[in-house]
Amino acid sequence: MEKKSSTLSVLLGAAFLMATSAIGPGFLTQTTVFTQTLMASFGFVILISIIIDIGVQLNIWRVIAVSKKRAQDIANDVFPGLGVFLAILIVMGGLAFNIGNIGGAGLGVNVLFGLPPEMGALFSGIVAICIFLVREAGKAMDRFAQVMGLIMIGLTIYVMFTAQPPVGEAVVKTFVPDTIDYLAIVTLVGGTVGGYITFAGGHRLLDAGITGKESLPKVTSSAVSAIGIASIMRIFLFLAALGIVAQGLTLDPANPPASVFRYAAGEVGYKFFGVVMWAAAVSSVIGAAYTSVSFIQTLSKTVEKHQKWVIIGFIALSTLVFVMIGRPVRVLVLVGALNGLILPIALGVILVAAHKTKIVGDYKHPLWLTIFGVLIVIAMSLMGGYTLFTGIPQLFK
């Protein structure tokens, strides 16, 4: 009974780790901004992105579980050196976005207590480090992700109800939109399962020993649950923002999600935003650090031996960079564009691996998942390439 309870805790922990890794400061901002521009039709974007996210997640988590290997080791088995390349991309993206996440945590503390963002960032970095100083860091990380996820969803539901969104219109436009924004779809997919995010839960299950064909039902359930948790948060935040913009109120361009919470519930709502922003940012910091280091630990015996301290160093470095330099916007945007290309590369590698017996043994990967995965790789490659070659030159003009 105790083992069953422990397994359930790990499955939930992996789902929440992936979901809370996705729900960071960028997630809050992009959801609010797209709602402001697309109004109720943004529901269609969310629907399509959820379907794509599930396709990505199921392909990657199932192959990791069956092969009993981390993504970088799978990539090296597909083509020697490919795993090192993938690990470099993941760590670059994880470090850059962790600097942004630490900044978001500092903003959350600033909203709650009026402290300078730099002081808030330092405090938040220490909290994240303390999670990994606990003897059973894996369990502590699982529990922290679950608690933060539930707090974020609970507060956002409250704000959604006070915003009184036009739910009927949102439901109709989700299936019959006025406009279809393909870039918004790609942005949402990249923000939910791009870069290191989709691997957070998959690698956590691997570390907990939930692997092999016999574990596939559990892995599938955890993968879908992870997307479900992130999507619930996205839907409630969308409805909250829609309720505000539908009233003709203008959001603060400097901090759109804070405007939603403040308009909906006054100063109490603004404080709620501080809690949500802090919870989203710190849980993303933990997810990014854990997953980024998991990508290099099998490539280096030293890293593998001192995994916990390398994770702590990763968080400390992210915090110090933000405190000393501030948010390096150009670097964040540049690596953001690169991060958009990580998903098709990583998913493409996994799809090839899914059909190599030396990697997955006698496991037969579902044909529909393979076809779905190939379509996602093509679509994300085209859109990621567009962003890289048109958006980045504009940034550095």
Automatic annotation (TrEMBL):
One of its GO terms (biological process) is iron ion transmembrane transport. The chain crosses the membrane at residues 38-58, 78-99, 119-137, 144-162, 182-202, 223-249, 269-296, 308-325, 331-354, 366-389. Keywords: Membrane, Transmembrane, Transmembrane helix. One of its GO terms (molecular function) is cadmium ion transmembrane transporter activity. GO terms for cellular component: plasma membrane. It comes from the Bacteria. Its main location: membrane. It holds the Pfam family Nramp. It is a multi-pass membrane protein. InterPro entries: NRAMP_fam (IPR001046). It is found in: Membrane. PANTHER family: SOLUTE CARRIER PROTEIN FAMILY 11 MEMBER (PTHR11706), TRANSPORTER PROTEIN (PTHR11706:SF2). This is Divalent metal cation transporter.
